[in-house]
Amino acid sequence: MNLTIIGVGYVGLVTGTCFAEMGNKVYCVDIDEKRINNLKKGIIPIYEPHLETMVIDNQSKNNLIFTTNLKEALDDSNIIFIAIGTPESEGGGVNLDFIFTVAKQIADNITKESLIVTKSTVPVGTNFKIKEIINENSDVEIHIASNPEFLKEGAAIDDCLHPDRIIIGSEDIKSIEILKELYGPFVSNHDRFIIMDVKSAEMTKYVANAMLATKISFMNEMANICEKTGANIQNVRLGIGSDKRIGYKYIYAGCGYGGSCFPKDVKGLINTSLENGYIPSILSMVDEVNEAQKMVLIDKITNRFGHDLSNLTFGIWGLSFKPQTDDVRSAPSITIVSELIKRGARVKAYDPKAIENFKCEIKSDNITYVDSKYDVLDNADALILITEWKEFRSLDLNELSKRLNQKIIFDGRNIYPKRIEDEGFELHQIGC
Ligand code: NAD
């Protein structure tokens, strides 16, 4: 099949590449010329395991074509995926300007009957507005489908090639059949297709993210209660996760969730709810608990060192919002590093992939970036672990002892064993 993917970010590039991998001809269209020119040269704009080789391979087979020319792409394809960003708007809602701009651009360039599939996370009703805009500006017959994306950054290729489910929201049997055929090679079991109406498909994506965010905020709240009472959230997690109704996933306490999806999608759903006259009490608290949780490490640091942190240096391990990605959007590291600097501290930071993106978030002479995890610790007064990349999991305690001014660790993801306290380290964790 010949497809166009509009928006070549985390979702568009990964899904476009996976469709190409299955032998489809995929045009990847973006307005960012630098991004497209780099991709043509095999330079990948994001870090995602296994992506680079697949992009280069499929480009060389001419299955994957990068372009800024939407018309060229639409002339040679009749399935059009929208995978552009839907960031938070100033009022906490969803900024759909990019989506509606793309709808108008499709209308201006489309020449033959096509299926328009929205992969971007959009509020209930948006697909119908996209259809309306295209119909108002073009006579070409179009069909629409909502096909929200569930990939996880850091495991995106695997998620895309082996999806848990493929949601297709459409009222049109032909569109459903086309999408089932396109996704056929990704599923050995056709039970993976879940077909529903457009609005429910749009809502499913928000509810999935809201549920996962709720689990995290709930556990963070439980961790805070554990800490007050002397219980240990790690033991509690093992105790409750063993109940199959609860399970072990997404019940880790930590220093808050981040990323380009959970924070904005929880806020987006709150906004949709309020716009429709319903006050979403649980969702509002999920967001509020998360914002407070991003400050938990700062509270622990100021309890230990006082509110004035000038003359102190902190070594940071991990800046991305989670391991295996370079994405720092809404990452807890942004709050934590800003708050340290605000209190006069100097920060030395290391992350395996996210340093360049982080540099765009905070500009300060008080931050230095180093390219080795142990160099971060030279003359630092404490180590702060924010993102649990695998390379941070095992500690060389001799190296830490040699380099740190004080043997103090703030472990924002509860990855270190309590026994390191026996080696003279002071270990501060979340909820234990
Ligand atoms: P992104 O910011 O990484 O990429 C968006 C791309 O769209 C950018 O390259 C931008 O230049 C391009 N773009 C903007 N306007 C355009 C236009 N008019 N024409 C062509 N290209 C244009 O975004 P993302 O993280 O891939 O997210 C895309 C959507 O998918 C969002 O709605 C997001 O909520 C959703 N989503 C994201 C993830 C994730 O893990 N990142 C997972 C599931 C769903």
What fold name goes in the CATH topology slot of the largest domain? Rossmann fold
Work out the helicity level.
Answer: 40-55%
Number of helices: 16
| DSSP strand content | 5-15%
Beta strands, count? 14
Compute the CA-based radius of gyration. 23 Å
What's the quaternary structure here? Answer: single chain
Low-confidence stretches: none
In the CATH scheme, the class of the largest domain would be Alpha Beta
Backbone structural class: alpha/beta
The CATH homologous superfamily name of the largest domain equals: NAD(P)-binding Rossmann-like Domain
| Distinct ligands | nicotinamide-adenine-dinucleotide
Q: Give the overall shape, derived from the CA principal axes.
A: globular
* Number of discrete domains: 3
N-to-C order of helices and strands: EHEHHEHEHEHEHEHEHHHHHEHEHEEHEE
**Average pLDDT level:** 97
Give the CATH architecture of the largest domain.
3-Layer(aba) Sandwich
Biggest sheet strand line-up: 3-2-1-4-5-6
Sheet of most strands: 6 strands, parallel
Terminal CA distance reads 54 Å
Describe the model.
The protein has 432 residues and is an alpha/beta fold. The chain has 3 domains: 2-196, Rossmann fold, CATH 3.40.50; 205-292, Orthogonal Bundle (N-(1-d-carboxylethyl)-l-norvaline Dehydrogenase, domain 2); 294-428, Rossmann fold (3-Layer(aba) Sandwich), CATH 3.40.50.720. It contains 16 helices and 14 strands. It has helices at 10-21, 33-40, 51-60, 70-75, 97-109, 126-137, 156-161, 173-183, 198-229, 233-241, 262-275, 281-293, 296-305, 332-342, 355-361, 397-403, and strands at residues 2-6, 25-29, 64-67, 79-82, 114-118, 142-146, 166-169, 193-196, 313-317, 346-350, 367-369, 382-385, 408-411, 426-428. The strands form 3 sheets. Strands 3-2-1-4-5-6 form a 6-stranded parallel sheet, sandwiched between helices. Helix 5 links the parallel strand 4 (79-82) and strand 5 (114-118). Helix 9 packs across helix 11. 45% of the residues are buried. The model has no long low-confidence stretch (mean pLDDT 97). Nicotinamide-adenine-dinucleotide (NAD) binds at residues 6-12, 29-32, 35, 83-86, 98, 101-102, 105, 120-121, 149, 151, 153, 260-261. Pfam families: UDPG_MGDP_dh, UDPG_MGDP_dh_C, UDPG_MGDP_dh_N. Pathway: Nucleotide-sugar biosynthesis; UDP-alpha-D-glucuronate biosynthesis; UDP-alpha-D-glucuronate from UDP-alpha-D-glucose: step 1/1. One of its GO terms (molecular function) is UDP-glucose 6-dehydrogenase activity. Its EC number is 1.1.1.22. Belongs to the UDP-glucose/GDP-mannose dehydrogenase family.
